[in-house]
Amino acid sequence: xxxxxxxxxxxxxxxxxxxxxxxxxxxxxxxxxxxxxxxxxxxxxxxxxxxxxxxxxxxxxxxxxxxxxxxxxxxxxxxxxxxxxxxxxxxxxxxxxxxxxxxxxxxxxxxxxxxxxxxxxxxxxxxxxxxxxxxxxxxxxxxxxxxxxxxxxxxxxxxxxxxxxxxxxxxxxxxxxxxxxxxxxxxxxxxxxxxxxxxxxxxxxxxxxxxxxxxxxxxxxxxxxxxxxxxxxxxxxxxxxxxxxxxxxxxxxxxxxxxxxxxxxxxxxxxxxxxxxxxxxxxxxxxxxxxxxxxxxxxxxxxxxxxxxxxxxxxxxxxxxxxxxxxxxxxxxxxxxxxxxxxxxxxxxxxxxxx
Length: 355
What we know:
single chain; alpha/beta; TIM Barrel; globular
């Protein structure tokens, strides 16, 4: 049996039946008030039915002001509970571990979408964002924790904290963006303080078997590979989180920073001490062969994005035939609709040549 099909135990929560996780993909399919739509429900539950060991929501914003794109799923209000319960229940009924990804876009929240200036660790002229006061940072921390409690109440097995791609937790991690001079700025320890306070709060408020994961990215938006590897190892050996999700854009690429070129970006993370934490990666894993090569690099699991959009049952297809040929773009709109993508989702991904 392929290692991709072997179960994966986490320190907390239920085991995954295989090493396939669904990537949290922006899909713009829910309602503008953050409530779950039938379209997003179908998109996600089809992947659970298709055999993914773990099915994760896309970025679910923890504050109304943290909305990053139209039709974004929300987890900032009890008004969202009904839809979230419906979603987690169906994911779990299909034998998939359910994870709600907690998100705040920070400076990347469009002003025309949220009706006010976006927020950031400190004033940011490029994005027209204002810096958060210390009181607002503490409210942000508490709202992340409340969103995790709400996710648990909704029946999710756990949450992932979105600390990647220049969203607010990554903004705090970036020395280029975070210009604060208080306990949340300057040193890496201070810049990661908010992330740790959120994790500690979730551990204190949620039950002991609740899964907590973190998504990081090592490049762009002022993030430095050296700092992110330090943080990644510290997180993995802290016994505070259950999985680390490294979003690499392309799992086979070399780092962008000149001094780190000469070996694959993924290797900088597979070489780290992990403690009891499970390490996985995302980034341009398109075929069964890509998935096998990636797992062979030494990670514990792999995450599929585009491949899961094109084949909702990629894990089941792989189980039936490890050499199966997945769909390739361009495909027809009708094909994408048959794979559970609504017209809104299809319009959103047109720029990447799907049709």
